[in-house]
Amino acid sequence: MKHLGLYSSFVLFLVILFSMASNAQPVPCTNGSVWIVTLIKTKPGMDDKYNQDMAKNWVPGAEALKKDGALLSYKILAGNSANKDDWNVMIMQEYKNWAVLDSIDEKVQAVTKKFIGTTEKQTNIVINRNDLREHVGDKIMQELIFNK
After folding, report:
1. Is the pTM of this model over 0.90?
2. 67-123, pLDDT tens digit by residue?
3. Which letter does DSSP use for residue 22 in this model?
4. Judging by beta carbons within 10 Å of its beta carbon (0-12, 13-18, 19+), is residue 95 exposed, middle or buried?
């Protein structure tokens, strides 16, 4: 009798399992690359100086990370602000997956040290950059690739 209850429970479990599998909806998309999106609001009249700073201090590091294979791509988009509180620059960095992003800190530190130098020099660049812009925020997002 004890075995009959155990057997019935097992059969019920299988019936539920198979009915769930047969009702499962196909997944409409797969996960693509992971993007860090940074939103910047340049201070009035500082667009050119900010762009010069990025060209000198940010782009060489991004190119080195691309060459290393850690960074797949990057884009810097600039446009008009919608209002006085809105951002006007978007920096997008594309990484292959979350695992690459999880281990990126050491590579970024090595590249930053190579292209900028000491921690003191790095700090001065950040302080000077803050005179040119306001960092509005960051988002980390994953690209969705929809099935055709």
Report:
1. no
2. 999 999 999 999 999 999 999 999 999 999 999 999 889 888 888 888 788 889 888
3. H
4. buried
Determine phi and psi for 21, rounding to 5 degrees.
Answer: -65, -40
Place of tokens 């940074």: 38
- Say which CATH topology domain 29-146 has: Alpha-Beta Plaits (3.30.70)
- The residue extents of the domains of the chain are 29-146
Instruction: Tell me which amino acid residue 124 is.
Output: N
Please provide the size of the chain in residues.
148
Q: What whole-number distance in Å separates Cα of residue 33 and Cα of residue 143?
A: 5
Q: 3-class DSSP state for residue 76? A: strand
Both tokens of residue 49?
A: 């100086």
Lookup result for tokens 């100086």: 49
User: Which spans in the chain are helix H?
Assistant: 2-23, 47-53, 59-68, 98-102, 104-115, 119-130
User: CB atoms < 10 A from the CB of 84, how many?
Assistant: 7
